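Contributing new complexes? Match this layout with adenosine-5'-diphosphate.
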Amino acid sequence: MMTASEATAPPATPLLSVRGVSKHFGPVTAVDKVDLDIYPQEVVGLIGDNGAGKSTLLSLLTGYNRADQGTFLYKGAPVSITSPRESRNKLRIEMIYQQLQLAPDLTVWENLFLGEELRLWGFVSDRRTMRKRAAEVLERLHSKIRPNDLLGSLSGGEQQVVAIGRAILFDRDVILMDEPTAAISAAKVEDLLQLVRDLKALGKTVILVSHRLEDILAVADRVAVLVLGKLHCVVPNRELSIASLVHLMFGGTTQSIADEHLLAAARWQVRRGGEGE
Ligand SMILES: Nc1ncnc2c1ncn2[C@@H]1O[C@H](COP(=O)(O)OP(=O)(O)O)[C@@H](O)[C@H]1O
Ligand SMILES: [Mg+2]
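Output block (do not edit by hand):
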């Protein structure tokens, strides 16, 4: 029989590694010497209480904010993340913002190619190919949206599909989602979770921030827990309960809960002084 740690052992080389990364805002230490490895084709649930530093950590990955301290490795090689453009093009990271940066009065295919139009002979907009590629991407995401639909006529969840479609179209490897269910109706949450699974099936890595712990349990391969800016632990998502996630979010490390054998497989970072592998 396999042990929990064997069954969830990730592949050897991380796609992206965060090493001793910190970010301060004046007197506030929003992210505090975080070490985290992110592997190809996995879903990482990132959880923590309000103000734990989840959004700030993502902002360091997208290049929206710059880390004060620490390093990033991309496929094992040190990289700097100094701008959103660098994060997108060099590290292939795409953030799905809640305030979707899309144009409601343009069609779906125009939004998919917004700012990155395909051109024939360098100047004529290649509408035919863009429509065709838009249709292909929507099909890969199992969506009923049509390329010619007006973006503004779509629901919040459907607009998120278009934003994610851009990540597929431009071949991003890591897709970051910060509370994606906040913008959609409860009935559509399952669609969003299915989209996360579809992204993984397409080979993508997803980092999902959500306060909806049941959603994290439904799709994450591993759960990373931030407590007051520090990475408290990373735990494989195997038969975990909401109660144990809450326990971890508030700094719990004891084994007084039902899934203690699974928590034993967690990589405790704070307790072991933030050591790496
Ligand atoms: N731009 C900012 N300026 C000042 N303080 C900030 C800024 N962004 C975040 N913070 C602070 O950093 C801490 C972490 O915030 P945040 O990353 O938004 O947490 P989370 O997303 O986990 O709720 C909080 O104390 C928050 O007030
Ligand atoms: Mg946040």
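Reviewers usually confirm one structural detail per submission. For this one: Confidence is low (pLDDT under 50) at residues 1-6, 271-277.
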